[in-house]
Amino acid sequence: MFKREIRKDFREKPKDEFESKLLDLARVSHTRAGGKKMRFRAVIITGNKLGRVGLGIAKGADVQLAVEKATRLSKKYLINVPIVEETIPHETYAKFGAAKILLRPQRKGRGVVAGGTVRVVCVLAGIKNISSKILGSTGNKINNAKATMLALKKLKYANSRT
């Protein structure tokens, strides 16, 4: 008789080049005719620390669904960040909602001088030396993250000074 060969197909998933960070997880609800409908909202920042970073916001019936969906969206909407000598090429400013973000390049060795949301985005983008200031009085993490992404999107490569 023929001996059936058992095929072991243990293909490992390739190591993901992107690192993800959960910025915010909230339980949200809205009222319908039948009562309140509870859902979860996840905010994920994804980056490869080499100049690519993305932001994903998604809602799901449970935490795991919301996180997976937000991760998928953050990888879908990646932006390229120009990095010159471990910092950004020039000063930039962006506003989203009430959030106003100012990003300034810093000399080597200064480190990431940024708070909360801006720090997470800059570290995952791969910026090692930067100074930032959240202008205004909003503590809204989503608006701060979106304003930071807008500021990074505005960056252009500096012309070489030779």
* N-to-C CA distance: 78 Å
- Uncertain stretches: none
CATH topology of the largest domain: Ribosomal Protein S5, domain 2
Shape-level CATH architecture of the largest domain: 2-Layer Sandwich
Q: What is the total tally of β strands?
A: 8
Major beta-sheet overview: 4 strands, antiparallel
The structural class is alpha+beta
Helix fraction bin = 10-25%
Q: What is the global morphology?
A: globular
Radius of gyration: 20 Å
Task: Describe the structure in brief.
The protein is α+β, with helices and mostly antiparallel strands and about 160 residues long. It is built from 3 helices and 8 strands, in the order E-E-E-H-E-E-E-E-H-E-H. The chain folds into 2 domains: about 20-80, 2-Layer Sandwich (Double Stranded RNA Binding Domain), CATH 3.30.160; about 80-155, Ribosomal Protein S5, domain 2, CATH 3.30.230.10.
What does this structure look like?
It is a single chain. 23% of the residues lie in helices and 36% in strands. With 162 residues, the chain is α+β, with helices and mostly antiparallel strands. It folds into two domains: 19-79, 2-Layer Sandwich (Double Stranded RNA Binding Domain), CATH 3.30.160; 81-154, Ribosomal Protein S5, domain 2 (2-Layer Sandwich), CATH 3.30.230.10. The chain has a four-stranded antiparallel β-sheet, sandwiched between helices. It has a four-stranded mixed β-sheet with strand order 5-6-8-7. The N and C termini lie far apart (78 Å). The mean pLDDT is 89.
